[in-house]
Backbone:
């Protein structure tokens, strides 16, 4: 069993062709602009969209006092145990739980429904997140199962995981969508971790025949020095493609709803 927070079918942006993308819950990085802030914590968590709240008060069924209504709807996320009782009581659809436990076979059975699309487009299943390599055994089980069923595979990863785990999954991954966030001097400031392990794993995959698409999020005011980024990329001529990922502010809205405020980044040019 593993912890995920979403599955998107007929995805067109997570590797070649039409794909089923599985979003793993849990990530060791803390990127300032995170597009999926609901993926960071490895356990289920509450989300509250106050724009949809009708102030009915039904969510006060919560046994831990998470919800209060003095001066508007207030949510004490620190008290929440993600039991889901308030979600069930909310007719307005303002509340949801991100994260649930599931098995590899359940995911593969769902992916199987779109086999015709994969075969026509060269697609398959993509593991994304969060960080799939934060749950390496679960990721490996899905990848092995996909190969047994003749389904193509891809993995989106930050590269921040044990090299031994990349060695285990390597035979079962057709494409690595390898994120690189910023040149070395900035990496820890912007993501919370050094990039040494990430670059070592990238070198390991390149030397061992992995097919790699390097994906670089370009965030206004933070990492717009594309010449410095290109200098790093030039060290790895085995990379087959580089994708510049434009920044979008969807994460700002989602972060607010889980009680993890995030600023929006706007270009000054």
Residues:
């Amino acid at each position: 069993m593993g912890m995920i927070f979403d599955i998107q079918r007929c995805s067109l942006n997570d590797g070649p062709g039409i794909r089923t993308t599985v979003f793993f819950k849990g990530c060791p990085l803390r990127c300032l602009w995170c597009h999926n802030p609901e993926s960071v914590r490895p356990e289920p968590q509450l989300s509250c969209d106050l724009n949809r709240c009708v102030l009915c008060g039904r969510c006060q069924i919560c046994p831990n006092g998470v919800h209060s209504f003095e001066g508007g709807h207030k949510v004490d996320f620190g008290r929440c145990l993600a039991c889901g009782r308030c979600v069930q009581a909310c007719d307005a659809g303002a509340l949801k739980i991100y994260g649930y436990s599931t098995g590899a076979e359940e995911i593969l059975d769902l992916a199987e429904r779109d086999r015709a699309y994969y075969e026509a487009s060269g697609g398959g299943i993509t593991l994304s997140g969060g960080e799939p390599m934060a749950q390496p055994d679960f990721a490996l089980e899905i990848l092995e199962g996909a190969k047994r069923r003749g389904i193509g595979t891809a993995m989106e990863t930050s590269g921040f995981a044990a090299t031994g785990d990349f060695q285990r999954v390597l035979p079962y991954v057709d494409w690595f969508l390898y994120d690189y966030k910023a040149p070395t001097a900035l990496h820890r400031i912007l993501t919370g971790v050094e990039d040494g392990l990430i670059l070592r794993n990238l070198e390991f995959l390149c030397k061992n025949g992995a097919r790699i698409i390097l994906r670089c999020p370009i965030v206004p005011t933070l990492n717009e020095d594309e010449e410095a980024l290109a200098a790093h990329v030039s060290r790895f001529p085995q990379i087959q493609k580089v994708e510049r990922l434009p920044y979008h502010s969807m994460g700002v809205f989602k972060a607010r709803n889980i009680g993890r405020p995030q600023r929006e980044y706007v270009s000054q040019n």
